[in-house]
Amino acid sequence: MNSVRKAVFITLGQRYTAFLIQFATSLVLARLLTPEETGIFSLAAAAVAIGHMLRDFGVGEYIIQEKELTLDKIRAAYAMTLSMSWAIALCLVLLASPLARAYDEPGVANVLYLLAINFVLLPIGSTAFAVLSKHLEFGKIFFIQLAANLVGAATTITAALNGMSYMSPALGSIVSILVTVIGLIIVSPQNTLIFPAFGHMRKVARFGGTLTAGRLIDQCANRAPDFIVSAMLGFHEAGLLSKATSLLSAFYDFVGSAVLSVAAPALARSGKPAHELKHDYYLAIPLLGLVQWLFFGSVIVFADEIIRVLFGPQWVEAIPVLRIGAISGLVWAPFMLYTPVLTALGEARKQLDVQLIGAPALIAFTMLGALFSLKWVVALSTLSLVARLWAVHRILRKTIDFSLREVCHVLKGTGAICALSLAAGLLVKLAATHLLHVPALATLMLAGLTVIGTILPLIFYTHHPARTELAIIRDKLRTMIARRPGSLGS
Questions:
Q1: Residue 464, Ramachandran bin (φ over 0: left; ψ between -120 and 50: alpha; else beta)
Q2: Residues 6+ away with beta carbon under 8 Å from 245
Q3: Rg (CA), the chain
Q4: Which residue, among 185, 192, 157, 168, has the nearest Cα to 44 in the 3D structure?
Q5: Cβ contact 7:262 at 8 Å
Q6: Backbone angles phi, psi at 12, to 5 degrees
Q7: Which of the residue ranges 110-114, 317-321, 356-360 would you say has the lowest mean pLDDT?
Q8: Contact between residue 114 and residue 171 where contact means Cβ atoms under 8 Å apart
Q9: Mean pLDDT across the chain
């Protein structure tokens, strides 16, 4: 348990650091690029994101769940990733011009040509990353990705300042991947500098193919709004949607993904049968739910201040879009861990079943909303989540005897803590805005401090599970301070 907790803390640290770096980069770019320029890059990035689903081909999950991992199996996984990545790079080059003509925007092709280089470089270190994750060596991953994020962000901002417009983020991503590959060669050369082999590719393809089919469907559905909004409402609205989505996805990119990346290998290593994973699921949900509800609740309550402070007045149209989209994050909290549970059990087919139900609903509701306005797109997209929730609930009930009633009971205290804390923050916001008339930044800071100052006592008073984790962090900090030269404990 200690090794898993340590891995979670390291991964959270890495994600938070990456979030701060990318967040700062986003703030700068919001003032250097217009919504239209952001929309052009977002459309190209949407096409590339679909390619990323095919590139990985479930190789990372295959390595994590494989009980007897040998060098030959690693080389087979590398061969699969290499083949897929280079094929996708070629497809992007061939599709760049037709896609640009379809949207009457040559900039889309220019971005795609540059991003295709990523797929040539990415497979070199993909298997090494998966092996490090399998063995919970997240400390090494932390330093590699820290260096990559810093260099990539510096490159992006420098390019934007020199007038490279929507090409800036693409150039930054290439440099970031180059740094990642170099770091993996230094840290794990035995798993990076290897030759592909084809002996076990059938097994990799069987597992990865099912997983990738589901993820491809899911990614196409998630990226569909970018294509639909760009075509039906224009690049300005696509840029607004992209900015709101980037804020909402920050939780999954820098908090949720950190927990999930550790949860899957940890559950796989435990070797527990399906019915025993229910207990672990119920233990983890209050901790993750607390952070998730606090994040998305804060987005709803303080959306106006967040947009104005972070991106400036030219993005105020994104405020209602941000608020509506945050509702999905609140509803999704009880089901957040379904993916690592199914991955640990090798249930790739069940993950595919979820995507086959949720993806068509999302696309259909998005197209319906685009007939009216961007607000309707986001509102109906949120409504489509009901279909996915139904599918996940049904599968978890059959797999680990999941009970929504039991989960609601487990999360009852967590919901009360978040509601009270956000209510206190809302009162401070209203007072600061309407009585004191303070600027948005000061309002956001005062309200944020109020939320934190309210939630911490509530956690300890109600004996919430987060109390144990906070106590561990407190004890570790005390130990670190006591060991410092010149301290009273040394």
A1: beta
A2: 225, 325
A3: 23
A4: 168
A5: yes
A6: -60, -40
A7: 356-360
A8: yes
A9: 80
Helices (H) and strands (E) in the chain, counts: 22, 0
Phi, psi of 271 (to 5 degrees): 70, 15
CA dihedral for 133, 137, 138, 141, sign (positive or negative): negative
Q: What is the end-to-end Cα distance of the chain in Å, rounded?
A: 29
Instruction: Sort 232 into a burial class: Cβ within 10 Å, 0-12 / 13-18 / 19+.
Output: middle
Task: Say if CB 115 and CB 48 are below 8 A apart.
Answer: yes
Taking only the tens place, the pLDDT of each residue in 245-290 is: 888 887 776 666 656 655 655 665 555 666 667 777 888 888 888 8
- How far apart are alpha carbons 305 and 312 in whole angstroms? 10
Instruction: Write out pLDDT tens, residues 142-151.
Output: 788 888 889 9
Whether residue 189 is predicted with pLDDT greater than 70 in this model: the reply is: yes
Cα torsion 69, 72, 78, 84: sign: negative
Which residues, 6 or more positions from 60, have their beta carbon under 8 angstroms from its beta carbon?
126, 129, 130, 133
Question: For residue range 44-92, what is the model confidence (pLDDT) as tens digits?
Answer: 887 787 677 666 666 666 666 666 666 777 777 777 778 888 888 898 8
Task: Map 383-443 to HEC letters.
Answer: HCHHHHHHHHHHHHHHHHCCCHHHHHHHHHHHHHHHHHHHHHHHHHHHHHHHHCCCCHHHH
Amino acid at 167: M
Asked whether residue 490 carries a pLDDT value surpassing 60, the answer given is no
Q: In 3D, which of 250, 111, 124 has the Cα closest to residue 177? A: 124
Structure tokens at 184: 């993996």
Please give the Cα distance from 134 to 64 (Å, whole number): 5
Given a contact cutoff of 8 angstroms between Cβ atoms, the answer to whether 176 and 151 are in contact is yes
Range with top average pLDDT, 346-350, 359-363, 421-425: 421-425
Question: In what helix (H) or strand (E) does residue 459 lie, and over which residues does it extend?
Answer: helix 440-461
Give the pLDDT score at 5.
57
Full-model pTM: 0.65
pLDDT of residue 58: 65
